[in-house]
Amino acid sequence: MDNTNDLWRIRVEKLELLRQANVEPYADRYVRTHKTLEILERFEELEGQEVSVAGRIMSKRDQGKVIFTHVQDFSGRIQIYIRMDELGQTMFDLITKFDVGDIVGVEGKVFRTKRGEISIHARNLTLLSKAMRPLPEKFHGLTNVETRYRQRYLDLVMNPDVRQVFVTRSKIIRVMREFLEEREFLEVETPTLHTIPGGAAARPFSTHHNALDIDLYLRIALELPLKRLIVGGFEKVFEIGRTFRNEGISIKHNPEFTMMELYQAYANFEDIMELTEEMIAHIVHKVHGTLEINYQGQNLHFQTPWRRLTMLDGILEYSGVDFRSIKTDEQAYQAAQEKGLHVEADATRGKIINEFFEEFVEPNLIQPTFITGHPVEISPLAKRNADQPEYTDRFEAFIFGRELANAFSELNDPIDQRQRFEAQASERAKGDDEAHLMDEDFVQALEYGLPPTGGLGIGIDRLVMFLTDSASIRDVILFPTMRPRDETVQDEDEGAEE
Questions:
Q1: How many CA atoms lie within 13 A of 243 on its CB side?
Q2: Could you tell me which of 418, 483, 4 has the C-alpha nearest to residue 248?
Q3: Which pLDDT score is estimated for 338?
Q4: Do strands 118-129 and 76-83 pair parallel, antiparallel, or not at all (unpaired)?
Q5: Which of 95, 108, 129 is nearest to 36 (CA)?
Q6: Is 38 marked as binding a ligand?
Q7: What is the Cα–Cα distance from 17 to 4, expressed in whole angstroms?
Q8: Pairing mode, strands 50-62 and 103-112
Q9: What is the model's pTM?
């Protein structure tokens, strides 16, 4: 920090004056009797009683021999009334050196001002932490999006609605965990570092382990270790954990995100479909008290059962192209050309079906909808459909045109799985760096026998977006991935000294 900065210099001078007066500006601890919201809600009971609160000074009005401040803790904020003739000149002079942003402890009696505001009539203020930087200017708050994400701590201080988003996020995860545990799912933890990245079509982040002299990858999915546990005899497992994909950043994607994956032995994708809609509806109701919510101006209805739609039926409905009459890769490529879709000349029919789906169907899936009937080429870990082996027993759940969940009857045929991995290796050799790698250990695990199993993955961040009406995934991740900036540049939202 440049000490010539005027605002910094002013606060340094105040800091030194406080220390000269034997005031320690960075306290060790402070005992509170109440939170601010508790006082506001229980005023009739607490009126006239002595209380102690602690929090950050959010406003300060100096009226000569009287000072009004508002102190904010996690639960809310309350007004503090300070009189010179009651605290004495010495303490009052010290308090005048307290700034907006400082963290203080307050002792005093609860009362209501003549204007009707519930307040604390202070008899003592204790400085707990001196803020050396001013908070953003009070009339405009912290509005710059770049600053809000980079300096989330300021965002949380200045914007109570942001804090509530993360309170809701915590509740969503807690309710999901309780729902699964009530159904005898066991929560487990699996490695974040993998020798082979698997379980999804995505680019991994790589690192190197010096002691073992091997390359390792941050996991791109939770899937394969969890299925190994089903092989080992666990019958219902789930994990909520961080996942990493070396991909672009958008309002829907962050390189580091949170997934919930579960696996249930002796179940198939239809069982998991029922579990999914029941769980999401349960979470929505627990969080909002209703099954109808508004997201970005669109009313969403989570009543069960949700709509079921095959991928081919969706393409026919929204593009007019019937892939049931298109049997070859060449015919599929021609259909793509006619619709103006850019696909590789050697793309398979299955991949082209997926391109049609993403272009014409996904944006129209506003209400909760299950999409089934995915081609085997884009589902290397899913069981083939018994009647139509070119498709898989898989579903994806879509809301507001965005994928929320992915699930399937797990492929437990080790010979088929090896062939699928080999086909993925061929795609990788052609330049598809998101294709799956061969995982010999996983195939070996299947050779010992994986029971019929249904699996599910849900993007926690996207679920939180829907349930907090957040437009961007960065609004629901406390510290989203950002490009480094020049730390010498002062943030434009930093305000003037008050």
A1: 27
A2: 483
A3: 96
A4: parallel
A5: 108
A6: no
A7: 18
A8: antiparallel
A9: 0.90
**Cβ proximity of 240 and 173 under 8 Å:** yes
| Cα–Cα distance, 229 to 445 (Å, whole number) | 10
Rounded Cα–Cα distance for residues 256 and 253 (Å): 9
399 close to 370: Cβ distance less than 8 angstroms = no
In the chain the first and final C-alpha atoms are separated, in Å, by 20
State whether CATH 3.30.930.10 applies to domain 158-306+367-475. yes
Contact 99, 11 (CB under 8 A): yes
- Residue in the block written with tokens 């095959």: 310
Assess contact for 460 and 240: CB atoms under 8 A: yes
Q: Which two tokens stand for residue 46?
A: 């607490």
Neighbours of 441 (CB within 10 A): 11
CA distance 106 to 55: 9
Which amino acid type is present at position 262? L
pLDDT tens across 189-205, in order? 999 999 999 888 889 99
Distance from C-alpha of 140 to C-alpha of 127, rounded to nearest angstrom: 27
Task: Scan for tokens 């509530």, then name that residue.
Answer: 164
> CA 453, CA 235: separation in Å to the nearest integer?
9
Pair 56, 76: CB distance under 8 Å:
no
Contacting residues for 291 by C-beta, under 8 A, at least 6 apart: 281, 284, 285, 301, 302, 303
Q: Tokens for 222?
A: 């939770």
Domain residue ranges in the chain: 6-134, 158-306+367-475
Q: Looking at residue 136, what is its pLDDT? A: 85
CATH class given for the domain over 6-134: mainly beta
**Which long-range contacts does 291-296 make (Cβ < 8 Å, 24+ apart)?**
293/466, 293/467, 293/469, 294/469, 295/400, 295/465, 295/466, 295/469, 296/400, 296/469, 296/471
Task: Write the pLDDT tens digit of every residue in 442-497.
Answer: 999 999 999 999 999 999 999 999 999 999 999 999 999 988 876 544 443 334 33
359 is in an annotated binding site: no
* Tokens (6 digits) for 199: 């379980």
- Choose among 458, 75, 455: nearest CA to 283: 458
Element containing residue 415 per DSSP (H, E): helix 414-429
Buried b (16+ CB within 10 A) or exposed e, 56-70: bbbbbeeeeeebbbb
